[in-house]
């Protein structure tokens, strides 16, 4: 019998549930907790980056190569934070879907996305098939 406390449940517990349990209260609470944890991580990372940038003063680095290295590290850090910012938007959208009762269902077809896909990518809004169709269409139009 799986643990029914969403905070303590594992991916294995979720996968051991029946198809009839798909997106029941327990599963929704599990994914909500997972998404909230991801959100906390993203916000904490952004705060660390902001704090590190504020503490670092590049004006006093005399060696041009040291300064260039530091600026490249900043650029890499900013690209990482930008990806996380986009992920944060997806996390917040997924949390809204949980609240509206639409989480776990493909936005194109209305079919279940599937637990394995949601465990791998909790922000997924498309089934694997719908995602593949979109990617083929994008590739088709990109090739023209």
Strand content: under 5%
Largest sheet: none
- Oligomer description: single chain
Rounded to the nearest angstrom, the distance between the terminal CA atoms is: 53 Å
General form: flat
CATH architecture: Up-down Bundle
Q: Secondary-structure element sequence?
A: HHHHH
Number of strands: 0
- Pick out the low-confidence regions: none
Task: Give structural attributes.
144 residues, mainly alpha, 0% strand, flat
Structure commentary:
With 144 residues, this protein is an all-alpha fold. The protein has a single domain (11-143), classed as DksA, coiled-coil domain (Four Helix Bundle (Hemerythrin (Met), subunit A)), CATH 1.20.120. The chain has 5 helices and no strands. Helix 2 runs antiparallel to helix 3. The protein starts with 10 loop residues before the first helix and ends with a helix. The mean pLDDT is 88.
């Amino acid at each position: 019998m799986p643990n029914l406390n969403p905070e303590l449940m594992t991916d294995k517990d979720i996968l051991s549930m029946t198809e009839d349990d798909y997106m029941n209260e327990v599963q929704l609470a599990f994914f909500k907790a997972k998404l909230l944890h991801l959100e906390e991580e993203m916000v904490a990372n952004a705060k660390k980056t902001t704090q590190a940038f504020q503490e670092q003063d590049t004006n006093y680095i005399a060696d041009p190569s040291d300064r260039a290295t530091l600026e490249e590290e900043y650029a890499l850090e900013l690209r990482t934070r930008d990806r996380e910012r986009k992920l944060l938007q997806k996390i917040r959208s997924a949390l809204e879907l949980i609240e509206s009762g639409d989480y776990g269902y493909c936005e194109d077809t209305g079919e279940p996305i599937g637990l394995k896909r949601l465990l791998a990518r909790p922000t997924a809004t498309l089934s694997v098939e719908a995602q593949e169709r979109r990617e083929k269409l994008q590739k088709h139009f990109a090739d023209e």
